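Hello again,

I reread your note about wanting to compare the complex against the isolated chains. To keep things tidy I'm splitting this into two emails, and this first one only covers the full assembly. Below are the input lines as submitted, including protein chains and any nucleic acid or small-molecule components. They are followed by the predicted structure of everything together. The single-chain runs will come separately.
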Amino acid sequence: MRAVVTGAAGFIGSHLCEHLLAHGDEVMGVDALTDYYDPAQKRDNLRPLLGRDRFTFRQGDLLTVPLDALFGGVDVVYHLAGQPGVRGSWGPEFAVYLERNVLVTQRVLEAARRTGLRRLVYASSSSVYGDAEVCPTRETVRPRPVSPYGVTKLAAEHLCETYRMVFGVPTASLRLFSVYGPRQRPDMAFARLVAAACTHRPFPLYGDGGQSRDFTYVGDVVTAMRAAALSPWTGVANLGGGCEVTMRQAIMLLGQLAPAVRVAPGPERPGDARRTGADISVARAAFGYRPATDLRSGLAAMVLAERTARHGRTAATA
Ligand code: NAD
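Full-complex prediction:
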C-alpha cells in the first residue's frame, strides 16, 4: 500500500511510519518541523527512518505545499500534522491552531476529494469531549471542548464528516485518548514525569493529581490506524487504552519502575478536562481494535527509552 503520513516527524507520526514500513507499505512522510517543541527532537525521530527502503521524506508546510502532486497514486493519507496541546491554545496563539488544525485539514480534504484516495485517516482527539457528561464516553455523546485546541480538533473532524457525507471522501476520524510511549512530546505529562524520575528533578504536577485519563499506548494507536485504513469502515471512533487512571496512581506506578519522583504541586491549568474515558466498542466492531499494552508495560518502555537516550548522550560527550 502507498501511504502519505503528515506530521511524520512528530511523536505518533514517527511511530506510524515505522509500523507501516514494518508491514511492507511504501511511505512518504511530510512535516514542517514546526517549533512547537525543539525541532531537533523531530529530526531525532526521523533519523531511523531516513535512508530506509520504501521511505521518503518531504519537509514542507501543508498550508502551502501543492497537495495534488503529493497525493497522486497514493492509497491512504494518515493526517496527523497539527498544533497539539491544550494549554497554549488560549490567546493570540489560537491563530496558529486555526491554521495548522483547521485550514490545513480543509486543504487536505480538498486534495483528497480530487485525487480519489482509498482512505483518509484523521488523528482527532478525546479533547473534543471536554468534560463529558458520561464516562466511559461513546461517540454519540455531545462534544463540549474545554479548550480552544479541542474546538479546532472538533472543527477539523466536522470537516472530515462534511466531506465524507457530501463528496464521499472516505474519512476515518479516530479520537485519540492521551497517547504515551517512547518519544512522547516533551510537554506531555508522562514525558515530563519519566524525565523527572531519571534526572532526580521535581515533577511539576498541575492540579491535585485526582484528574484521570484513559492513557493509550502509541503502539496500539498506530496498529489501529492501519487497521482502520484497511477496513471498509468510515466515520468517527474512539481509540482509548481501556482503563482510566488518575495522575496520582500513574506517579505511584512509575515509582515502582524508576526512582520515586518528588512532586512539586502547582495550580490546575485552564483547558485540562477533569477526566476522560473511552467507550471503544465502535472501533472494536469496525476494525477489530483491542488495546494490548497495559500502563505498567507502556511506562516501562518509556523508562527504558529515556535511559538509553541519556546513556547515548553521556557516551557521546565523554
Ligand atoms: P507532534 O507535535 O509530535 O506531531 C505533529 C507534527 O505535525 C509535528 O512534527 C509538526 O512539525 C507537524 N506539523 C504541524 N503543523 C504542520 C504543517 N502545517 N505542515 C506540516 N507539518 C506540520 O504531536 P503528536 O502528539 O504526535 O500528535 C499528532 C496528532 O495527533 C496531532 O494532530 C494531535 O492533535 C493528535 N492527537 C495527539 C494526542 C496525543 O496524546 N499525543 C491525542 C489526541 C490527538
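For quick reference: The first helix runs from residue 11 to 22.

B.
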